[in-house]
Amino acid sequence: MGITIVMLSEAIGVHRNTVSAIVNGKNINVTQAVLLASALGIIRVLVELTTQR
Fold it and tell me: What is the pTM of this model?
């Protein structure tokens, strides 16, 4: 995608160490997941998946 950890951390407003931990497999909470999805432009997909029950 061409996005660095620093770029992504700035986009979602968290420290770069947090994004690095996520990239390396650390579990994340719902808020972090929504911020990450939004920054990557996939928030609509996430919403659709959670409302199709």
Answer: 0.63
